[in-house]
Amino acid sequence: MATAPIEPPQRLVSALGGDPEGPVRAWLAALPELVQQRLDSWELTLDRVHAPGGSSSLVAFVRQQDGTPAALKFPVPGRAAAQEAAALRVWDGWGAVRLLRSDEASGALLLERLQGSVSLRSLPEAKALLEAAGTVRRLWVAPPAGHPFATVAERVAADAERLRAAGDSAGAGPLVDEALELGRSLPAGAAEEFVLHGAFRQGKVLAGERAPWLAVGPAPLVGERAYDLARLVLDRFEDLLAGSGAAAVARRRVAKLADSLDVDRERLRDWTLYRAVRAGVRESVSGDRRRGESLLEFAAYV
C-alpha cells in the first residue's frame, strides 16, 4: 500500500497536459487513483514513481507480495497499450522484458523490474550496436495466428498523407517524394514477415538480471526485419553528423548492421531513408526544426 500521494512525473504532465478537455488529460488526472487501485488489487507495495520517466507512460517501481521487485506501467490509453502487452506475451521474456500481469480495463502492465537508468546508450557506440543487434535478433519471430498487430504496409499507408502534407511545410519536397515512393514499393517486396519491435533503439534496451540486456516499450508491427533495423541505424545520428566523412560512415553503418543480421543492404538503406525522412519531417513540424533538419541531412547521406 502506498503511504504518500502518487504524483505523475512532470515530464508526463508536460507532454500530455496540453488539452484540458481531452480524454488523455482526463486519464492523467485520474492516474493517481488508477495506480492506487492496481497497487491494492495486485497487493503491491510502492517503492517510488520513476522520474523523470517518459512522455507516454507512468512507471512505478513496486514490490510484489513475496518481496520480488517489479515495475508497474500505465501507458497512455489506446490500442498501443493493448498491443504492447500482446507483443510481450508473444516474446515471453525472450529478448524482452517479461510481462507478469496485465489489466485490460486500465491498461496496466506489471513487468519484471530492469535497471531503468542503464540502457545500451551507456555503452560505447560500437559495443552498443553489437548488443542491440543481438537483442533485436531474438525479437524477430513468426507472427502467431490471429495476431492483433498492424502491418508495416498499413502503418506506412496511414502515414502517407500526413507525411506529404508535413513535408511541404518542412520544405523537404524531393526527399519526401523519395520516401513516399519507397513507402509504396517496399512493403510489396518483402520476402518474409516477422513480429517487429517497431520502435527499437539503444534507449529501449535496458540492463537486467535474468539477461544482460532486454528490450522494453515495443510499438509492435508485423513486417520485414529491415524496417525494424532502420531505426537502429538512426541511433546517435547527431554524433555521426558531427564527425568527418559523415556520408561514408552512415553507409558503413548500414552495411555493417545489414551484414551482421543477414538483412539485405539495399532494403535496409531504403527503409533507413524512409524512417529518417518521416522522423525529420515530424520533428520539424512539431517545433524542433534543428533536429528535423539533421535527420533529413542524415537521410540524404545513406
What features would you describe in this structure?
The structure is a single chain. The chain is of the alpha+beta class and 302 residues long. The chain has eleven helices and ten strands. The strands form three sheets. A five-stranded antiparallel beta sheet has the order 1-2-3-5-4, sandwiched between helices. Strands 6-8-9 form a three-stranded antiparallel beta sheet. The chain has a two-stranded antiparallel sheet with strand order 7-10. A hairpin with a 7-residue loop joins strand 1 (45-49) and strand 2 (57-63). The longest helix is centred in the C-terminal third of the chain and has 22 residues, at 265-286. The relative contact order is 0.11. It comes from Streptomyces yunnanensis.
Tell me the number of helical segments per DSSP (H or I, 4 or more residues long). Answer: 11
The largest sheet has its strands arranged as 1-2-3-5-4
| CATH-level-4 superfamily name of the largest domain | Aminoglycoside phosphotransferase (APH), C-terminal lobe
Order of helices and strands: HHEEEHEEEHHHEEEEHHHHH
| CATH structural architecture of the largest domain | Alpha-Beta Complex
User: Based on helices, strands and strand pairing, what is the structural class?
Assistant: alpha+beta
Determine the fraction of residues in helical runs and give it as a percent range. 40-55%
Q: How many structural domains?
A: 2
Q: Total number of β-strand segments?
A: 10
The fraction of residues assigned to DSSP E strands is 15-25%
Described by the principal axes of the CA atoms, the overall outline is globular
What is the CATH topology of the largest domain? Aminoglycoside 3'-phosphotransferase, Chain: A, domain 2
Rg from Cα: 20 Å
Weakly predicted, low-confidence segments: none
How would a crystallographer describe the biggest sheet? Answer: 5 strands, antiparallel
CATH class of the largest domain: Alpha Beta
Mean pLDDT metric: 91
- N-to-C span: 52 Å
Organism: Streptomyces yunnanensis
Protein name: Aminoglycoside phosphotransferase family protein
Pfam families: APH_6_hur (PF04655)
InterPro entries: Kinase-like_dom_sf, NH2Glyco/OHUrea_AB-resist_kin
